[in-house]
User: Fold these one by one.
Assistant:
Number 1:
Amino acid sequence: MSGNSFGKLFVVTGFGESHGPALGAVVDGCPPGLPLTEADLQHDLDRRRPGQSRHTTQRREPDRVRILSGVFEGQTTGAPIGLLIENVDQRSKDYSEIMDRFRPGHADYTYHQKYGVRDYRGGGRSSARETAMRVAAGGIAKRYLRHRYGVEIRGWLSQLGPIPIEFRDPSAIDSNPFFAPDPARVPELEEYMDALRKSGDSVGARVDVEARGVPPGWGEPIFDRLDADIAHAMMSINAVKGVEIGDGFGVVAQRGTEHRDEMTPEGFLSNHSGGVLGGISSGQAVRVSIALKPTSSIRLPGRTVNTSGEAVEVVTRGRHDPCVGIRATPIAEAMLALVLMDHALRHRAQNADVDTGIPAYAEVPARGAMDPGES
Amino acid sequence: MSGNSFGKLFVVTGFGESHGPALGAVVDGCPPGLPLTEADLQHDLDRRRPGQSRHTTQRREPDRVRILSGVFEGQTTGAPIGLLIENVDQRSKDYSEIMDRFRPGHADYTYHQKYGVRDYRGGGRSSARETAMRVAAGGIAKRYLRHRYGVEIRGWLSQLGPIPIEFRDPSAIDSNPFFAPDPARVPELEEYMDALRKSGDSVGARVDVEARGVPPGWGEPIFDRLDADIAHAMMSINAVKGVEIGDGFGVVAQRGTEHRDEMTPEGFLSNHSGGVLGGISSGQAVRVSIALKPTSSIRLPGRTVNTSGEAVEVVTRGRHDPCVGIRATPIAEAMLALVLMDHALRHRAQNADVDTGIPAYAEVPARGAMDPGES
Amino acid sequence: MSGNSFGKLFVVTGFGESHGPALGAVVDGCPPGLPLTEADLQHDLDRRRPGQSRHTTQRREPDRVRILSGVFEGQTTGAPIGLLIENVDQRSKDYSEIMDRFRPGHADYTYHQKYGVRDYRGGGRSSARETAMRVAAGGIAKRYLRHRYGVEIRGWLSQLGPIPIEFRDPSAIDSNPFFAPDPARVPELEEYMDALRKSGDSVGARVDVEARGVPPGWGEPIFDRLDADIAHAMMSINAVKGVEIGDGFGVVAQRGTEHRDEMTPEGFLSNHSGGVLGGISSGQAVRVSIALKPTSSIRLPGRTVNTSGEAVEVVTRGRHDPCVGIRATPIAEAMLALVLMDHALRHRAQNADVDTGIPAYAEVPARGAMDPGES
Amino acid sequence: MSGNSFGKLFVVTGFGESHGPALGAVVDGCPPGLPLTEADLQHDLDRRRPGQSRHTTQRREPDRVRILSGVFEGQTTGAPIGLLIENVDQRSKDYSEIMDRFRPGHADYTYHQKYGVRDYRGGGRSSARETAMRVAAGGIAKRYLRHRYGVEIRGWLSQLGPIPIEFRDPSAIDSNPFFAPDPARVPELEEYMDALRKSGDSVGARVDVEARGVPPGWGEPIFDRLDADIAHAMMSINAVKGVEIGDGFGVVAQRGTEHRDEMTPEGFLSNHSGGVLGGISSGQAVRVSIALKPTSSIRLPGRTVNTSGEAVEVVTRGRHDPCVGIRATPIAEAMLALVLMDHALRHRAQNADVDTGIPAYAEVPARGAMDPGES
């Protein structure tokens, strides 16, 4: 209720501060019998973790996750899964000067107003460091969705600041430090980031995520639509300021004849809807885009006030990502996995016995596993 | 849990189908002592209800709300508030031909796959008619927020299909059938809609909503950020495909120096954040934009399949809005009110005793009550 | 969250006051495809409703329930089921004298302290009249449990004031106004109640409820044990002051060798546990007992204070049950049904795919459908 | 949702198995500014922990709790509080022989049926060892309730098997290994336990808990009554089979004139209700009793079946409490604290602004801080 839990049936509850001893999470509601080891979760944690290239924060955290409960002899038992990652590379002295001043664009001022007390070291609870636990918990969801339902989730960087990145080669996504699906763009992205880093400024980004193989019927009508819960999940990621499903803001200027995805016995003829109709999955790919703001943790001084209400300047030292969007891809994937997992369980709770006899249609023509650009 | 409730402490639970006997809602958690009559809720219901102009559906529903409980001698008692609106103008025969075929772009197919059984009359539970109860329930929230905290919520149409609408005159919003804040644009909008209606097609729209006077400190960190819950609320409205907070997707190409809202002892110097920092309200105006798709209920035939899996054509007869975005303004206001109300209560549950001694900063220079365009 | 909802997946949300226009409830989460009519719910409502004999309150309420949504062509659709019962026999003038004084043993004082404002007519929201909606909602759960899982739920009066009632003839339960399973006791019960009514006093009662055919595996470990949720449900009924599962307080003086229910390939050899082990159903009958206090609504004057803090006397006029336990049997059945229904859905959400290959053991020797006395 | 969380606003989520590496809990929703150290929680953990006398299990666990988050510079920050206790004295080999057979009276069979897979070492998740985290989390609640509201919570053993224990000297409670409030009874209790231990059998117990200083107004009407949530909390403790509020099952034979607690300007004249009227605290002491069954972990062989469905005998080796009720007192206190804490926050969320001007009455004559026997 105080915002540290996500999901209704597959529930993730996180804790931990950027400069505290550890981050942790409890994952409750996981079905029993899922093969699971720590190594299974480490892959995505490594994709997210800092210090992987010169373009992200230089904080060195191995982000080794321990499973403390809920797994017995290599498989889940249905009991809550306790996860723990110890912080090892805190440098809290970096933050002492912002103890009494509010960095503009940060949560410093709002946390102070909300709680009256604030762990200012590295942003405390408001640090994006907490997203490590999202990735760990999301890894369990991803794994179950793949094993039980054949659902595959993939994200990529679709724009870095002013540079749009086309979806040309999904196999390239994990081969460059940007999660960019267009390898030909990578040199330009590196150049841009090097210049940005030198300038001391930061920049925004856009990330796309997609889930394929989602069966029709997931999502609840009215308030807990699949897309509403996805919007919730995505907007809860640090720095996200916009969420789109399917054509997103592009629908404003569309006509109904253009937008509605017609159906044939072979499948849907397009996917403007992003795989959700009336809040419920249609069997088409679920497609989501998010906008991430430029981090406010920059070396360039800004005007602000201190806890005494005086005008002061502030410079963020510490170690930060000049573009938080770069590391956001595995986080967005994890959040989409958590939503889908939760709705898989919610759906079968109410509708376990439903058998419509109607096939699950997907898009036609059949497209490559990672080729959303054609729709 | 099945999606018909919204909120954690100020909880709205709705029921009712488009062509059933009535729509209803239970509002639980309202603080006692709020003066409340049915007339107080009718104003917004009238703003939303169909048939107000030739540009919306011609279904004639008075949408008279009855308060069945929770109010005694003119004020709320703290008990749940039962609300009921009877349906009076159903014409279910209009829908018999779509009983066994799935209208493209509608929830027909997904509801069928989810539940195996479907009330096809007017879309049943998936009809936008349910939004009447959102507006009624949101009216209670709006009222409490204004009485207790001085919060004012206003929405407007900012784009109709290809026509952008500037924010020029807030006093005009309720004086035209589009909720357009630019009276000079109204003739163009009317002409556009007349042509659209004749064509049998539909179009999308963009709606903006704003809350002024929100105190700093509302919202929960991590998963239940104020903006995450707003995104959830907005994306749960029928036809919404995108949500932005503050600069929204505009942040992708922004620099950190540009985006971060600097503070002075007089207040914030800009409002790129949309009034939320780290998921918690900052005292700036909370600003939200949503994209609504063109309704798929159009007279132009489309390809689809029927319940036997055969290729068929379908035409939506019935009475429909050629642009659902037109009536969306009071709905978006209601959803923003519900989120803020819920977080007002959540905040004081945990932090009732917090007194920071720090003033609540708003934007400077002081702007007119409805002048968001300057930020 | 304000206490008017029950359940996590099969969720009942009620509203309405004793002397308001109507009582209502929304039942969300019911699986689709269940045959359901208003008549199906009326049977239990008639068992509970007042004025059925001279031993209960003489308020005349037909308690006719209307289904406003969620049912289409005779079966549930998965959409929320709106239920409404109109109040017809309010006599609010009976209550004007208790407007400013707190009846001892009632909720008058505590509601006043909680909310500052109070609907004093007939107890307002605190009246046991709200239990009509529990019975209506519980009727849906009972029906689903029987259709889908073969679960049968039955309750009876096991003690009236000082008179214990043995479980001799379950077929007699619905043939006397007390739900007493021993027809030979009925004349004594009638005589006792006639004398009690004349005295102007009231008395307590004990009610037993049992569910047979519950499959093993329902209930969640740790906090949401099946028995914990049953205790919650039962203690939430007006006037209940104690709850027992299985042998209840009898276990205090038992030895482990006596209490543990041994198992054989033919089944459990006893049922001291009341059908729950480690919070999870065992396949044995689920057995519950509750203690109901004597109503405080009596004609004999009592000392109290008024809203000005002065010492006053108060007499409850109105129309009341001299033993609220008499009408409690269908209410207790309904609450047990709601808990089991909720856990049936919760169980299959997480464990839909579990197949242990182990049979479900019940008690042996096989007993008559309503013969719990032997265990 | 899978049963490992308790509370709605002050939420405890636990994890960990008896023989896993650690037990943990996340406490979310704690108000900021509460002074808190690990030592503050250790006191109650030490009261609960095993091996304190020869009358409890001889497993040696220091039960040292670490606070991993949510506390900064000695006070709570409003962020979730991560708690961890490492298991140090597991002897899992003790359990290998029960790997494939279901101990009667245990959760072995029901967990197996629910999940299909089972961590059999020491009962896994079903072990009472998880109650350590309840005590740790409850310690935070106790502390806040005392600091902010002056609420004091105390429990004691009121019956051990056949031996009733009168409430004679509250100061003696923590001075004997039984939490017995009658020091004169202690030798008899020790003798009884020594004989019991020799016999290899186990016995039940009764524990009473009381909260003094609870303000009037806590608790929600209808389903989430304070007493309903208390019943839920208590019945969720391992081995509990019965819960009473106030006079409990004693009310069955009471008259209304006897039961109703009359009020005078000086206060309530009695406390039959146990401090709750209409589900809401009255200002009287909140009084609760629970019945704990004899543990089924005994050395005497019992009949059962194995996972192949064959008849077998089983003996529980391992190390166990011959009377789990002895260590239940701090657990029951913790659960009462969690319920009260949750309702304190829930109450102020909705009713923060209520000011009735009516004093909070308590019982008269004023009694000693720990003298419930007089009411």
Number 2:
Amino acid sequence: TEGTETMQINHAQFCYNINVFFWQGSDFFFIFLFFRKKAHGSVFLKRCFVFCLVEQLVDEILKLNEDPKIHGLVLDLPIGALSGRVINSVTPEKDVDGITDVNLGRLIRGDLSECFVPPAASAVFDIEISRAQTPKAIEVLAKEIGLLAGEIESFGRNKAKVKLSLLERLKEHPDGKYVLVAGITPTPLGEGKSTVTVGLVQALGAHLGINSFACVRQPSQGPTFGVKGGAAGGGYAQVIPMEEFNLHLTGDIHAITAANNLLAAAIDARILHEATQSDKALYNRLVPTINGVRQFSPIQLARLKRLRVDKSDPSTLTPGEVSNFVRLDIDPSTITWQRVVDTNDRFLRKITIGQSSTEKGFIREAQFDIAVASEIMAILALTDGLADMNKRLGNIVVANNRKGQPVTAEDLGVSGALAVLMKDAIKPTLMQTLEGTPVFVHAGPFANIAHGNSSVLADKMALKLVGEQGFVVTEAGFGADIGMEKFFNIKCRASGLYPNVVVLVATIRALKMHGGGPNVTAGKPLTKEYTEENLKLVADGCSNLQKQIQIAHLFGMPVIVAINVFKSDTEAEIDLVCQIAKHSGAYDAVSCNHWAAGGRGTVQLAEAVERAANEKSTLSFLYDLKLPIVEKIRTIAQKVYGAKDIELSPEAQSKVDLYVKQGFGDLPICMAKTHLSLSHQPERKGVPTGFILPIRDVRASIGAGFIYPLVGTMSTMPGLPTRPCFYDIDLDSDTEQITGLF
Amino acid sequence: TEGTETMQINHAQFCYNINVFFWQGSDFFFIFLFFRKKAHGSVFLKRCFVFCLVEQLVDEILKLNEDPKIHGLVLDLPIGALSGRVINSVTPEKDVDGITDVNLGRLIRGDLSECFVPPAASAVFDIEISRAQTPKAIEVLAKEIGLLAGEIESFGRNKAKVKLSLLERLKEHPDGKYVLVAGITPTPLGEGKSTVTVGLVQALGAHLGINSFACVRQPSQGPTFGVKGGAAGGGYAQVIPMEEFNLHLTGDIHAITAANNLLAAAIDARILHEATQSDKALYNRLVPTINGVRQFSPIQLARLKRLRVDKSDPSTLTPGEVSNFVRLDIDPSTITWQRVVDTNDRFLRKITIGQSSTEKGFIREAQFDIAVASEIMAILALTDGLADMNKRLGNIVVANNRKGQPVTAEDLGVSGALAVLMKDAIKPTLMQTLEGTPVFVHAGPFANIAHGNSSVLADKMALKLVGEQGFVVTEAGFGADIGMEKFFNIKCRASGLYPNVVVLVATIRALKMHGGGPNVTAGKPLTKEYTEENLKLVADGCSNLQKQIQIAHLFGMPVIVAINVFKSDTEAEIDLVCQIAKHSGAYDAVSCNHWAAGGRGTVQLAEAVERAANEKSTLSFLYDLKLPIVEKIRTIAQKVYGAKDIELSPEAQSKVDLYVKQGFGDLPICMAKTHLSLSHQPERKGVPTGFILPIRDVRASIGAGFIYPLVGTMSTMPGLPTRPCFYDIDLDSDTEQITGLF
């Protein structure tokens, strides 16, 4: 017999597509078969026998490579049929089994997650693990999770933008469960929130068969080439391909950079033009006569409306109205809008601009921030759709005029262009974990001067896609006192979404540091306090864990403590943390081994999360938006950080007064505080008490919609170290593979 | 009867795929049919009759929308069956006919090119024409032009990157004909080289049935939001969708910005680190001991080799060798590498950086250029593959050390990271014209300090794809004296490709200006010299045309003059130009009407190009690379510009001496001269003579591979006018459509 057959089997909640290719020869047995389980997350393979002549083998494989109905190939051949030619004929896209001369002897597995062998030696790099797994084509993943063909825009083979129309289509569907991953106060070594996030969805999706989605932030390129390296998770809990995740992705940060810098250029150019032209000349240029017709653009009509000038014919404005219309009268000393680059460029922290003679002496001091610190990034993360984004972009306050009134992006006439530059960035990017479960990568606002959480839109879309029984896992930056507090008070307020569970990530070594262990530095060998059992340090450090559990309880959330296990951690240490955590009110506490074992290493955590999500929980916000700004700050300082009180500098107090006068008093608060301590002093580990939190200055992101008090000095532009990561990064021009990203 | 049928008909050189869906009801006649001619370029539609019940109509349309085998729908219904519901059920992707309530009465056309109705009024904007045409899915276009599925990476529905592996697959195939579009000395109004380029391929592909490809530059976002507006062609000769062409495209310029600025950050950070650390501290940081192992990275081994230190064990270097290795000893006053943004930000033309106290007083003057002026853009345009690009990136000279030796990107350890950032940008982006013919958009180097031509790789790939009888049309920036001269002497030298024909674009109004007509300003009404017949001005202005024809003849190329016709041009004016052009040695001279009529308006030009391409022509370069730098400059000045001689400033002379000493004497020359005159004085129109060309300074782009003499001051950062384009640009949040781009 010879032919192709496609059948569909409906079994319980799953639907299988089966593609069988079969034909018969005289010499050898030969198999081609592939089962795809359509619930997203896992892929099952089954065997089936087909007969074929070895001479036809390569030709038949080549044909199958081209057949879009065949999703993958599994070869099961007698030894005599194995040859380099046969092996090479299978394209990577169709090669479900990872056929190489090394692993030809491997058995076919019942579950793809079993492909992942724990690393043999410490020399295994994340990029090698990432590369060893061939991702599914993104269209296949999109179909698995229930997206329509017209709802995605592919960006190469491994990434796709998902259109916002999905939310309209699924608006009547119930949301899934919503899980936040947060951490204890971080140390320089990192606690692994990203790997836990990825490991958890791998366990839920690929091992427990529950629809699950991870929503993570897009990393800045600055750290990728600077100190920190990539941010795709790590080990066997990664977003793949990690190089695409860590580099340009689908260009969202570049779009933000372009929009941010267009607005910045518009500010200085406008000041120059106003200073060098009469009202009449400005008016003639701003509202020109084209082919005999003179009219206001829609954005100019909007400005007239704000100026309470109810006219639409440019010839009817009085000289006073013309002057008000053409002069934004920006006070350069009040400009808060900075230029950005997505590069760690410390020499741009403080600069002087406008020194060319063409700028006629309009020199001023300015700075560049890292792109992810742009308010436009915070807007992208908080918006719930195009109309809302356009409004927020127009509302951005870039400076005050000389009367102390806010000047906005809309006043500058540039808000429409900003929206146009951001029109694709607003769509979340779909990628996948190492075990083939779906991930949204979208937005990555700075976690100190902004709110440090991925986008509202990605969470909303994922919650619809997973369905009522499914799970969406998202991550908050820094420790729970910062990222989680902002998640609830800012992001949940913007989204209207209510989470079910908080997962609090800790490591034994970080707890030891909070318990009084010596300082640690990335790259340097750890001292014996960290590599040998030390129950005293662990127990003392659990004070920080306890405090963070209490913070989560302030918001009414059940907490599961996830201990991200390292090989030097002892069983006694882990047991101790679990015991203290539960004693402190945690719903459960479990150890996780996702780095070495992928989703299999996080099944226990996934089960605990599933149980906790079925408990009843009610989100309560920490403060009422109607409270005075100072009271809102005091509430966070006392209830979350454990401060005795706050103290505002005169500058901070006068800014608070200004914002209230400008009508911005009812916005939520986004604290800009060090992440390395619950207090404002990075060296104070554990649970500092009795301190007075100093508020040095207060700023406002009106487009994003929050007031941000500055506690101490916040660097918004990282630097490059003496030996940046880029020394090891290279591109092999033959294989097109990247080396040295980690 | 009821059913689906797919058949294939082979007819002459073309292959048709026919998809017919048919069934029968009792009330109405109903048609579904679509013919696709597989030669790229045009699409033919034919009618066929099917019967159907009107109640089933919408459901059937919805089904057909989802069927990937149905490429498009044409409805032919009795009036009674027309309803909003029926009209709305056809998705834009399948809507071949552009069904709206306005044009329901239109006849079905035999050729899609006839869809294009000349604009009724002058108020028709390019973006409206662009939007009125639904582009083919990019996968469909890719298949039509012979790309394999694995050779493209889609970026949304309308763009795809094409992999370089194509060149390897087709390396034995013959190249097609290669046509360069250049222009007379430009005026502020533009002569329409881009529209001629697009119109010409539309005529060749969609009207003459010849395989054809346009290769064009990616525009900078600066002008899009500043003064000039978009650059996708115009009217009925455009690359579509024009908003995607003009905005982020596939992110290449953003990648260049990221790479450029990473290198800039590395330079200043390195100077700071060297100045504040001992040799030993630097060495320990640059070559750290990790897990007990100390070793050089490959990029460091390359530097040791350049230093002639033949050692690979870090512990064996002498203190002198260590010092040489760790100290690049950059002389800050010699830094030529500037930061870039893709924004018209005049306040960054001259700045002071490093003013934050964290930079310890290492303050220096610097500048930002527009991103397309980056040397990395020139490298992208000139490279012939990954290995070559990596080498060029490493060779970039950013400064000299205090001994006067060049310091390169490889010395800074960053060249591998630059290659990684550029790994996707190196793949050309496939788009389409308004008439469905293929276009490569790739690279867009500044036309004054760089060479102003699209990429070598795109041209090479297109020449293979069109086949021996096909045509590739590419465009050179500015007038022929600049863009064409650099095309031959720089781009063709790098590519090894030999063009067949030069198309020289002129407009009647530009010739009038060269003939002594008054100045023109964009946006202002034209004076009567330009709107009424004036044969004297035309005849006088043809001197410039004659001179540019002669320049093309210097390179051994046949020239066809293309007159881009405006409605105020008279027949006598056009005839006069044609006559003078032919008299001056042009192979032919024809008028073009592509703006109003698309490819149909350029058929005559296409036929002339086809004839000329069959003539024998031999490319000769203007100068031998082995000539001294000054002689090469003199040759261009005298033979191309018509200068009496050149005069080097002392600074220019000393730079020439330095570059010769550094071993860069054999590079080609890339003149940085005003494009508004053949001379260095923009106000001198026509054919200036007797002038001495002043060479103010000489610079070098060693990675790109050219020396660039500066004739006068070149602005590398445009500014924003009082009323930038962005005032009119907006995004409709309901329809997601952009308004105001042009």
